[in-house]
Amino acid sequence: MSNTETIEALHKKTYDEVSQCIQCGYCLPACPTYASMETESASPRGRINLVKMAAEGKIDILEDLKEPIDLCLGCRACEVACPVNVPYGSILEHAKETIHDMEVRGKGNNRFKDFALNQLFMKPKSMKRSSDLYYFYQKSGLQKVARSVNLPEIAVKDIGAFEKALPRVPSKKYQIERGKRYPAKTEKAVRTVALFLGCINDAVFYHVNYYTLELLRLSGCDVYVPKEQNCCGALHAHQGQTEQTKKLAKENLLAFEEYEVDTIITNAGGCGAILQEYDHLFTEAKEWKAKAKAFSGKIKDISEVLCSLESLPFQERLDAVVTYQPSCHLNNVQKAGAYPEKLIRQIPGIKYMELPSKHSCCASGGVYNIQQYEESMKILGSKMTEVNVIEPDIVVTSNPGCLIQMSHGINTYGEGQPESIHLVELLARACGIKVE
């Protein structure tokens, strides 16, 4: 495809959408990058205008559009603030797809990034091997040695510090087996659901999946774990790799199709958001669009399902001050942001302290904190200032990227060193569920 054809394709995909923006500025206070950078090109309104100009051929896509788009977190808080419902998420993904296609043609794409996305995350066996290596790294004592000499930070500069934010992995016996049905632990099952494992959670945060499974079973759910499920494709979509996202979507649609369930459970806001929007990927393939629409209608976050069941068997009193950093995609895309706080408030002994800027992104943004480390740290530093004022014992999140980011924030900017955990781990503790 020539540059002219690329511009025409961008025009076709986005022009009607970008033309909906009335440039009112309601999105500006909601945008974390505008707040930190204070430039129009770092705002949703500014980026939409740049996409429009690129679609009209007035600016160069790589020279003028790429950097402002790359600096967007994709949190989609602007969509909630927008009075005319501009589909910013769709505009952003089309812009990223166009930029990616032009980089590939110009051979300017990042080989390491492409390897990670297409040779690692797209292949469950590769993720399993990575999980085994990480388990060995921790259990063998290599991690302790590496940390004692700051090897990760020396080897990979700033982003090496994220290694200290990774969780302690439990025994591999807590890694969920695929292709199985796990029966409810109540006298009678009240609901039959399927569990989406994800790739990062399945490899590194598999204790989060285990807690999710056990909470569902204690609440009366029979749980299926489809064997052939794969990465959700969110990271690929965020990098403009639309064809790879579609491939993963098709694999997941087929993997879950054979199970007669009305709910598919997720425990990561980023995964849940892309899964809920699978039907947007198939604009022309009617058969796949129909499958995707049926699939997307079943996606529910674990917090929403547990709230609807109202049957968590709390056994332990947790005397702790807790604050919560929401997942942007759980809030802004899945529209399920109220459920985690509702569950936290139900736990015996908890003193819940609300973050003043809870609706503002923590700046994890998929791999944004790796690709745009300095800008990410500006936003995270402001977030941690609020956390330090609250002085919590525990910081709760509902997405693995947010969990790593907030753990890194505690390590870098924290006072008092609170613990950072996923919502389901907090609930599991209150229900007496433990891992070794």
Spatial extent as radius of gyration? 21 Å
Largest sheet: 5 strands, mixed
Uncertain segments are none
- Top-tier CATH class of the largest domain: Mainly Alpha
Sheet with most strands: strand arrangement: 1-3-2-4-5
The SS-based structural class is: alpha/beta
Could you say what the CATH topology of the largest domain is called?
Glutathione S-transferase Yfyf (Class Pi), Chain A, domain 2
Structural domains: how many = 4
Mean pLDDT: 92
Determine the fraction of residues in helical runs and give it as a percent range.
40-55%
The CA-CA distance between the termini, in Å, is 54 Å
CATH architecture of the largest domain: Up-down Bundle
Classify the beta-strand content into a percent band.
5-15%
Separate helix tally: 23
How many individual β-strands? 9
Per the principal axes of the C-alpha atoms, what is the gross shape? globular
